[in-house]
Amino acid sequence: STQSTWGIHLRTIHYNNARYYESIGDIDLATREYEASKNHRYEVPRMLFDHNQISELEAYINNSNDKELLGWWAQYNESSGHYDVALNYYEQADDTLSRVRLHCFMNEIDQAAELVASTNHAAGAYHLARQYEDQNMVKDAIKYFTIAKSYKHAIGIAQTNEMDTDVMNLALMATNKRVMIDAAEYFESKNGSDSRAVTLYQKGGNLTKAIELCVKGKLFDVLTSIADNLESDTDPEVFLKCSEFFIEHGKYDKAAHMLINAKAFEKALNLCLEHNVRLTDEMAEAMTPSKSEDEEEEAYRNAILRKIAKVAKAQELWALACRKYTQAGDKPKAMKMLLKSGDKEKIIFFAAHSRQKEIYILAANFLQNLDWHNEADVLKNIVGFYTKALAWDSLATFYDACSQVEIDEYRDYEKALGALQESFKYLGKAKTPEANEKAKVLKGRITLVEKFVQARKLVKTDPELMVQMCHQLLNDPDVESSIRVGDVYALLVEFYHSCGDNQQAYDLIEKMRDKNIILSYYLEQSLVESVYAAMGINDSGFAHHDDDIGEDIPED
Length: 556
Fold this sequence. Notes:
- The protein is built from 35 helices and no strands.
- With about 550 residues, the chain is mostly helical.
- The longest helix is centred in the last third of the chain and has 29 residues.
- The termini are far apart.
């Protein structure tokens, strides 16, 4: 600051020296001192002018290359009527506005227009536009006010001349929202619910007014466009008004989205239910409130989550319903939704991570309906989930069902026996009166299956005992609770046929027929025909007999 104070002091000294040299007529020294004092732009022209040294003044300005001095000299020449000289100096001074102004003053409008076109000079364009406006050259005035970005003036002229296309285009170019709103009011006053008014109200920031006009004029497409481009932080009232309009026009999916944006989640969900609006994952997530420490807010969150899940369930969106019930903390309901989806992998994963008895049981029950016999992982998970749930009774029932499948589908009595023994073991773990009763019954069934398994093994080693055991089984009143009598008969028929005792084989086949047992299910057709041929009967009636019986297989 000391340095700047010293600089000001020095300039004062130079200025005083310049005044002295001027007073004694030493123009060259005075000029140098005025320049040192930085007052030369005003003082030197004044001094030379006062001493009538006009040619020296012109030379001084030409040599200076100083735009301020060049501009001063241009003004001097203009005031003296030397317009062409002035234009030249205005150009050197880069003063486009003055050049445009002077061309206009000289009625050289075309040159002024060319100058504005080549420079795009805003102030020059404004001055030229004013000239055109004074001459009522409307289109040119609008053009140059537009170049000057003076949209308000341009719109004013367009409105006066009812050039509505220009009003609209200019209003859309304007950055000033007040200009847009003024133009919107102009269109509204002319046509009421004008789509142009709606657009300008929207861009001008008055969404409420834009939507009001859409509703009033039933401008469905325009409102749809507005709704699609609304920001998420728009006033909820705007979204609600849009939703009312869409509901009125039966556009329920649009209405639902508007209600979601307005945070009116319950209304949106009711709309989805009543009008079957497809609930998307995006909609569901938009309606899911954030977790909160506040009890009331958390209760509201859970209520909304359950409502979302309910709608998803109604629309059979099982994965979504499962997710929302899980978020609401209701894992059993979530599991039930997942079961509806039938997605084995997700069900196993969900159950494995649930740590809830009810869910383990639900998963195991579901998996029983799959092909557990051929899918080892399914069988393993059924047993695993029942075991984790300590559901011994259910596990016993499953193994009982396994034994039945081994008998009915595969005629594998050894595997069936193993399954029954597992069932018996888990009934013992259940330790309930009901389980004890079941165990007593099961013990009898195991005994019968054991006898049949043993009899099959005796075919080659002790056939007489095998025959005896088979007849004991056939005479046992409870045999059909454990094994299929057709398998017992088949074992005997095959044995007698192999021994050449076709009479015995024939008698047993006839007994099977008397009991309506389907031969083809237990005996090969070639075997039956061989027995009948040996007995002198040509037609065994094998196929015919089975057709009469149809598929009426008695349940064992």
